[in-house]
Amino acid sequence: MFSYAFKKYIRGFHNFLPFIVISLIIELVTLKIFSLQSAGNELINAIQLGKDIDWNMAVSDPKFKGLAVTFFSIIAVSLLISPILSNYINLIIKEILDKKEVRHIETLKESFRFYFPSIGVTLTIGLMLLGLLVVSVLVVVLIPFLGIIAAIAGFIFFIYLAIVYSTSVPYLLYYNSTISEALHYGKEVGRKYFWRIFGFLLLINIGSQIINLPDTTQILAFIIVTLLTISLNILSKTYFLTLCKGYKHPEIEYDHTYDNEDKDDDNF
After folding, report:
1. pTM for this one?
2. pLDDT given at position 250
3. Cβ-contact 170, 244 below 8 angstroms
């Protein structure tokens, strides 16, 4: 099924360019805002160079307080914008998978409609994982002799739940479902394709680590790394949406279906 997703990703890549440009601009603006803060510039350089940082002195520095305000302001804006952009690119991918005409303005407007449902699904999963983490920590603290076993079991179950529910938001967007349906059927998709998702995420993580190896203090290197990271993120979304489509249309797993789709894609 990955080959199906990858073909769609390559053939429809030109439709991703608006999202890529917007995401790159946001990253560059964020970098520039931090760089304008002298404390931020010094702190970023220190972190990138692996230097020891005196956090007590840094916190007492007025310039650091300005950096903190900037940092939390950016987080607040990101919380407002990120779900919309994520919904937008997911809906663009859905149109490509369904061989529909891509209409960016209409799709962007539609992404607002999924704003609260997608946040609801994400928040529910986040609280579930947080609850598991809290329970695991309590077991380790209150029952020391079960500490290692509880920690390992909690970690494994945490990974399992994170993978199983990773397709819930894509399911919500692909099938225009309710929050409860997205959680239920998204979990079913995750369970059905668990090992595929696990292997894919492992490869994506390795790829991300390799991409981030170069020194990004130079602006050109930062742009290249950011573009590669965004492209990898779009590929991940394409694969997850393909799994959601494959849950009800398993025929896309078989190579012989590509021949007919390739003919259609030539006119796409």
Report:
1. 0.79
2. 73
3. yes
